[in-house]
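Question (not urgent): is this output format expected?
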Amino acid sequence: MWAQGHESVVLRVRNDNLPLTREQHGYFSIDVPGVREGDTYSYRIDGHGPFPDPASRFQPEGPHGQSQIVDANRFSWTDDGWKGLSLSGQVIYEMHVGTFTPEGTWQSAICQLAYLKELGITAIEVMPVAEFSGAFGWGYDGVDLFAPTRNYGAPDDFRAFVAAAHSHGLGVLLDVVYNHAGPDGNYLPTFSQSYFNEQRPTEWGASVNFDGEDSAPVRQFFVSNAAYWIKEFHLDGLRLDATHSIYDSSRPHIISEIARAARRAAQPRSIVIVSENETQDTALVKPETQGGYGLDATWNEDFHHSVMVATTGSREAYFTDYLGSSQELLSAFKYGFLYQGQWYSWQKKRRGTSTLDVNPAALVSFIQNHDQVANSARGLRIHELTTFGRYKAVTALCLLAPSTPMLFQGQEFAASAPFLFFADHEPKLAELVRKGRTEFLSQWRSLAVQEIAYDDPGARETFEKCKLDLSEREKHAQILALHRDLLKLRRSDSLFSRQSRQLDGAVLNHECMVVRLFSDNFRQDRLLVVNLGSQLHFNPSPEPLLGPPADSQWSILWSTEDPNYGGNGTPPLDSDLNWIIPAHAAVVLRPVYQKEKPPAHG
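Got this back:
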């Protein structure tokens, strides 16, 4: 136990009070024979307490209760043949365990794994599960970083979920928060004031002290946590929340240390480590030998923001610096980040770094995630904010891009359930959360000019309404079929599955674009045409990318306007009338070769 700055630490277990021996550098220790799994315990610090263990493996009564001993070796793993994950070819599914099923537990989520596999998902990204206060929450206010929250089940239920996922050929990534701690139940400062730096705050509270005085044990605590999840839960990787708020001026950077420790813990399996980074710093996904941090991938918010402007027309708040034009969408398809060092007026500074030497798969693209759905007045999903045709078209753009695609739970069947901000806190803190949420949403000019009755983040009803209605998979079978078929096309067609920048594109008008993916001999190229505007009669058509390979003509391989997806069918795009491109649609074309005609006689 690291309790720097204190004189005494006493362990209470089995009604015994056992003083720990004081060692060097603020550490205390004790060897306690005879304790059993399930025993609960706590600590007293300089006569104060009791306090839970800051490295507790389980808090059956929540973050303020007793800690419980867990035997990590009791679980019988069945995934010996599982080799782990590598970045190439992944399709990520972001999941909040508490709202993914009506029951909101690990056990109920296990029953849905076969569905995810059949859909075409390869990796599940679980939103944070570290213990937090209350009966429901997003998980980003976790306070016991080693303890899976009691709200979803016991630690072995989490292990069972991972083992079951592996049996279905699915990887599991865990979202972890190493930039701040939650506001209720955080006992780390009780054991040492050196865990956090109040002088360098994040937007959620004090930052973690990774480089100040007495920071070495703090670094060890967080590095050990990353390795713990990988080793003891057989996880296939991590998603590091808000890395732009992880401050460290030392070398190696704490992010690099975390990545190294996680990979060591996984051996001989391979894992994938993803970052969220608002500043779009590609150094995160470059090797340490090139001055990078050694992660595998990072989220691409630019893609989402441009899609939202293109499909809804709204350019408020942090959408201000996006036009939603076909040129923007084409650039996002080709290069990932749209801002790679240009001036960004919303933040009044330059944004982003170059992706020209970055593997396209290292950028995770999405049109929904937990934050972006919730960052609206009513937590509406994109299909409720635009036309059905545009929703299908931008889905195709995302799922066929060379980046790594990510779906947010329920997106694949156009779930009617919103995703709102919810957090179960005691009354005074709950009131502060309500006020804070209202202030955050006031950046949207349209929301700031009128009184809106927002859903109360602290109300059980708010949490409950976010739970998916799984029966909608049948009710909305057409959009589910579109997602399933798109992922099958991405997986089976070599030009889409290779995740390469061996492609080019052109803008046909402000809302219509074309991408041509080149085959090795240019004989089996693919065209992806995306039109978010009205029907376009592109005549004349002086665009070389539209020309078919010699002795061939373009044939429709896939279309959002297929009747199976609720469309009206798709006539040939290229005909004697020149190019006629349907409205609010995406179409994939392939070349079909004509049989060689016999030579003419006479």
